[in-house]
Fold these 4 entries.
Entry 1:
Amino acid sequence: MIPLAEARERVLARCERLPAEWTRPAESVGLVVAEAVVATEFVPPFANTAMDGFAVLAADTRGATDERPVTLEVVGTVAAGSDGRVPMRTGQAIRIMTGAPMPPGADAVVMVERCRPHPSGTRVDVCVEVPVGNHVRSPGEDLSPGDVVVEPGTVVRPGHVGVLAGLGLAEVAVFRRPRVAVFSTGDELVEGPGELRPGQIRDSNRHTLVALLHELGCEPVDLGIVPDEETILRQRIHEATTTCDALVTSGGVSMGDFDLVKKVLGQLGDMEWMQVAIRPAKPLAVGTVNGVPVFGLPGNPVSSMVSFELFARPGLRQMMGHADWGRRVVVATVPEGFARSPDGKTHFARVRLDTGPGGVVTASSAGGQGSHQLSAMAAADGLAVVPDGDGIAPGGEVPVIVVGSLTGPLPS
Ligand code: AMP
Ligand code: MG
C-alpha cells in the first residue's frame, strides 16, 4: 500500500492545466481567471447623486435648520438617465433622483427627507446645512482606468461578473472548463426503473459522478454503462480520450477476474495501479491515455465518491487552474468517538456536522459505514479523517473534510 499523499502526488503529476479561453463572464462563474482584468474607464462614469433630493450649492445652505430653513427656487428636475444639463446658480435648486448626473452649477445634494417643497413646486425649504460634495458620488470612486479589477488566479464569482459588465467587458480569459467523460463498468449494472433480474443492480455511480463533475464546474459527458467486455471497453475508452479532456470510470480496477478496466487501460495508455492506504477507496488506477488524464475509480459506491474527492477532484481542479482542491477541513469534536482497529490505513468516516453555540463543530456518524452504504455518504456533511490506530475516544477531536454543508444560525 502507498500513503495517500504519495498517491495524490502521482495523480497531480498527470493533470496539466488546460489552456485559457475567452468566455462570457456569466458563464465563467467558478472558473479561474487567466489574465488580469484592467479597467478601461471610470466607474461611475460621471458625478451623480446617491440620494433623491435637491441639487444645491452647499454655500446656499449655510445656517439652515428645521426652524430656520433656507428657501431656494426650484428650476428643474433631473432623473437617472437624463444628461443633467439643467443650468442653475446661487439661490436655486434642482429636484434630483438617485443616479442622475449632477447639474453643472450644483456641488451638493440635500436628501429629500431634509427638504420641505412648497405646494406650488417652484420653491423648496432646505432644513439642513450640507458640505460641498454631500451625497455626490464622484467619477471613478469605484474604478479608474488602469485599476486591476480581477487578478489572475481569482475564481470568478457573481460580483466579478457585475464588475466586468459595469466596465462593458463582454469576455474574460479563464482556464477552460474541462469536458470530462464518465462511464461505469460492470455486467451487473442496469439503468433506470424496471424489474431487476437476479444478480442485477442499478447503476448509481455514474449518476453520482456526473453530479460531482457538475458541482465541480466541469462539463460531464455521460458515456453510459460499459459491460465487462474488452472490445467495447477499448472502444469506449478511445472515444472518451479522443473527445474529452479527462476520463473518470467506475469499477473494474480491483483484484477480481473481471476487473478489465485495469487491463484495457494498461494496454491503451500509460497507467499506474495503486493500493492506497485508505479505507474506503483502496484501489485506484490513474494515468494517461491519448494524452488525457484517466481516473479509474473503484466500483463500490462510497469508494467511488471518496476516491473522486481525494484524487479526481484535486486533479481536475489543477487542470482548471485552481490553487487548492476546494474543500475546507475543520476540526470537529466527536462526542461518541470513532472505534476502529489498526490496519495500516487512514479511515474516512462519513459524518454529519453540527455547529453549536460559540461555533464549536461536532461530528457524528452519518449512518452505516460500509463502502456499499451510499445512503450514509449521501447524508454526510463531511469525511472524518481517522488515523491508523485505535480510533478516536469519545469527546476527542478529528479533522473533517467538509463535502456537504456546514451551516450555522443566521447572525442577528
Ligand atoms: P468493482 O469495483 O467493479 O469490483 O465493483 C465493486 C462493487 O461495486 C460491486 O459490488 C459492484 O456491483 C458495485 N458497483 C460497481 N459499479 C457500480 C455502479 N456503477 N453502481 C453501483 N454499484 C456498483
Ligand atoms: Mg465490476
Entry 2:
Amino acid sequence: LKKSDVVHFILGERLHYPASSSPVRAFAATNIALCKYWGKRDSELNLPMTSSLSISLGDKGAITELSIHNKEDKVIVNGKEIPHDSTFYKRLIAFLDLFRSSRTIYFNIVIQVNIPIAAGLASSACGFASLVLALNQLFHWELSTKDLSILARLGSGSACRSIKSGFVEWHKGIETDGMDSYAAALPEIWPELYVGLLIFNKQEKNISSREAMQRTVNTSALYPAWLEKANQDLIAMKKAIQEKDFLQLGQIAESNALTMHALMLSAWPPISYFLPETLIAMQKIWELRKQGIPVYFTQDAGPHLKLLALQKNKTEVQSHFPSVEWVRVF
Ligand code: PMV
C-alpha cells in the first residue's frame, strides 16, 4: 500500500474540499519517547515493529502557519526560506502532494520551531504534526484525533504521538493498511515530572533515524531481543505511570534508551549518536544517583540527553548541570 491509498481512505470526498482563504495556524508539541520506536514493519507507511510511549514537551514544539499561495510552494522555517533542492523541502512537498488532487494549488508554509532542528529533538515529529493540524483547519476536514495521528505518521513515524499532549502511547497495530496504528493519550497527569534538555551542540545529525533504523533491523543480531524488551518495558512503564513510581519510570526509560543505542552499536556499519560530552554526562548522572539524587536520562537519534527528574530535585540537578533547560510537561 502507498501513502496516497491511506490518504484517500481517510479523506475520501474531503480531498476536494476548498481551502479556506485566510491563513490558519496550529501548534504541536514535540515528544520524547520514554519507550522508543526503533524499527519499521512497513517503511512506506511508517508502521512500527513495536508500540512506544512518549511524553509531549509542553510548549516546546512547532507552530505552522498555512495558507494558499498562487505560484509555487514556499517553505519558511524560523524566518529562513528553505531551498527547493534541499532534502527537507522535497520531503515536505512530497507529503503535501498527498493532499492536493492536482498541482493547481500551492502552499505557503511558515514554521516556527523552538527546539534545535534535526538534532534528535524530534523536530520532524512536531513539524509534521502541526502541519497536519493546520491542513485539517485549512480544508475544514474536521478529522478525529485518530485519523490526524495516522496522517501525521505518514510524514514521520514519531509525529503521530505529537497530536496529543501528556503521556501518549502509539499502538503499533497489526493491519497492513495501518488503520490501527495511531497514538492515544494516557489519562494520567503527573505535574511534578520535569524533562531537562541537555543540548551539547546545534549541529545536524549525520545519519537520519530512517536510515539508522533500517540498518539496525537488517543487521543487528540483537534486534529480536529488542522486540521482547520493548514489549515488557511498555507494560512496566504504564504501571509505573499509574502508580507515579518515578524510580521505576526513570529506570525503564534509561534502560530502554541505552538498549536502543546498543542495538545501533551492534549494527553494521555501526551507528553511534554519542559525542564525548554525551558519555561524560551519562557518567555524571550515574554518579549523582549513587549519591541518592533521583535523576535519569533518555537519548534519541542525536547526541543530546533529556533528563527526567521530579520538581523537588530540579535545583539540585541543575547545580551539576548548569546548562540544563527544564520543560514543564503538565
Ligand atoms: O519518527 P522518526 O523517524 O523521527 O524516528 C524517531 C526515533 C526516535 O526518536 C529515536 C525514537 C522515538 O520513538 O521517537
Entry 3:
Amino acid sequence: MLLFKTAGDVLEFSLLQQNQQKSIGFVPTMGALHDGHLALIEASKMSNDLTVCSIFVNPTQFNNPDDFKHYPITIEKDIKALEAAGADMLFYPSVAEIYPAGWQKKHYDLGYLETILEGAFRPGHFQGVCEVVERLLDIVMPANLYMGQKDFQQCMVIKRLLSITGKDQSVKLHIIPTYRETDGLAMSSRNMRLNDAHRQLAVEISKALETVKQGYGKHPGGELTAAAKKHLEQKGFGVDYVEIASAEELLPVTGTKEKAVVLAAASLGSVRLIDNLLLN
Ligand code: AMP
C-alpha cells in the first residue's frame, strides 16, 4: 500500500490513474479503524481499479474541543488493517496540508439539513464536514465515494454537497449499511472511549431503536420516540434526540407507507454516540 502525506503526491497519483482510465474508489475516515470502515474499503475494492483511504481528524468539524482532543488515534494499527484489507493507497495528511496558509473558508448552503438533528446539536459540524470532503475530493478525484449509513444525516449532507458543487457529475456516492458489534452496538471509533460499564450500557441505544421499529405502524411515532428517550434517560444516558424522519429527506413523515428512519444521539459520560435504523 502506498502512503502519501502531501496533497501534491496524491494529486500526481490521481492524475496518473485518471490518464490510465483507472477508477478510484475513495473512503474518507478519521482513523481508529474498525470493521465498519473496512466494509467500506471492501465495497470500494469490488467496483474500482484502485481504493484510496484517507485518515484525517478534521479539526473544523468538531464543535466540541474536548471531543477533538480525545479523538482516538491508532495510526499504526490502521495502516496494518488497511494493508490487510487490500487498500491501494492511504492519504494521511497534516492539518497544514489540508488547510494551507491563506485557506479561504466557504459557506455551504445546506438548508434545513444544517439546523435539524445533528445540525442542531453540533453547530458548524456539517460546514466542516463539507469543507474537508470537498478538499479531499479535489485531491483524490475519485469516481466513487463510500460512506456509512451510520452517519445517516452526513450522507444526505454529502449528497447535497455533490449537487451544489456540481461534483455529482463525476463522483457517485455509495451508502454502506451500518456494521454492528455482536450485541448490536453500531461500530464507532468513539466506542473505544467507553469504560466497561458504559460499553455494556451502550447497546441500549440500538435496542431502543429496535423497539421503535417493532412498534412502528402500530403506535404513534411520537409515543414510540418519547418512550425510547425516557428508557435511555432512565438507563443514565444524556439524550439529545430520538426522532423519526423520512428516509429520503429527513423531514416529518406523512404516513407509514413513506420510507422512514429513526435516529438517535445520546451520551454516556463524555462520549456521544449516534445510531439509526430504517423502519420500513
Ligand atoms: P469516521 O472515521 O467516523 O469519520 O467514519 C468514516 C466513514 O466510515 C463514514 O462514512 C462513516 O459513516 C463510516 N462508518 C463509521 N462507522 C460505521 C459503521 N459502524 N458501519 C459502516 N460505516 C461506518
Entry 4:
Amino acid sequence: MRCFVCKKPTDLKIIRPICKDCFIKLYERKVERLIKKFELIKKGERILVAVSGGKDSLSCAHVLNKLKHLLGFTMECLYIDVGILTCTNERTERVIKKFCEDRKLKLNVVRVKDLLGKKLEKLSKERRRPICSICGVVKRYIMNKFARENGFDKLATGHCADDMVRFFFKNWLGKKFDWIAKLKPIIPSEHPKIVTRIRPLFECTEEENLAYITINNIMIAPCSRCSYFLRRDKWNEILKLIDDKKPDFKINFVKSLEEVELKIKEESKLKECKKCGEPTSEEICAFCKLKK
Ligand code: AMP
Ligand code: ZN
C-alpha cells in the first residue's frame, strides 16, 4: 500500500492507506481546525482536561498539549478516582501520573470515596441502580465543580465520534432529545455554575485515537475501560457492521450533528440544588440524592 498523501509505502490503513507521519499531521490539523471553527478554546484560557487513562482521553490531552503554544492556552489534567477496583487500580493512576510528569502537566486527583464517603459499588447495590449511571452522575458533578472552583474556563473530555454516534442512537430510542441537542463539539454553559464543556476529538474515531496513541508510543492504562460498561459492546458491534459497509459513516454522522439545530425544552431550565447549591433541574441534585 502507498500513503494517499505522500505516496510512501505504508502498512497503516485508516479508511485509506496513510503513512505514520502524514497520519499524525492530519490528525493534529483536524483537531486544530475543529478548535478554531467552533471556538472551543480562546487565547489565554485555562483548560481542564479530564483523563481516565484510556486511549481517547490521553489522545485528547496529548494533542491539546501539542497545540497549546500555537493556540495560546494553558492546561491541567484531572483524574477522578471512582474507586471501582476493576477500572481504577493503582496502575491507572500511575500511568496518568507518568503521562503528566513527562509533559510537565499538573495533575489533579479527586477521590470519590472522600466526597461520597462510600464506594460506588456499595451505593449501587443499596440504591438498586446500575453502577454506570451512578458513576456518570458522580463524574459529571465532580468535573464541573472542580473546574469551576479552580477557575478553569473550559472542561475538555476525550469524547469522540464513536461516543457521539452511540449516544445519538441510545438517546433517540429513549426519546431523550434534550441530550441529543448536546451532541456538539462545544456545550456552552447554561448556568453561571456550569463550566463550558468541549470535545476536541469530536471528529476523531476510536480507531484514529488508538493509532495516535500507538504511533506516539503513549502508555495507556491496562484497564481503562470499565468492566461494568461492557453493555456498550452491543453498539460497538452494530457500529462495526456499518463501518464495514460504509467506512466514512461515523465522520459524516458527526459532521451532520455539528450542523443540526435541536431546541432544548423550556422545562429543562436549571435551578440550584437546595442542599449543595450546584446546578440541577430538580429541587435536589442527583449527587446529593445519591449521598443521602
Ligand atoms: P467515558 O464516559 O468513560 O467514556 O469517558 C468519557 C470522558 O470522560 C473521557 O474521555 C474522559 O475525558 C472523561 N473521564 C472518564 N472517566 C474519567 C475519570 N475517572 N477521571 C477523569 N476523567 C474521566
Ligand atoms: Zn504519507
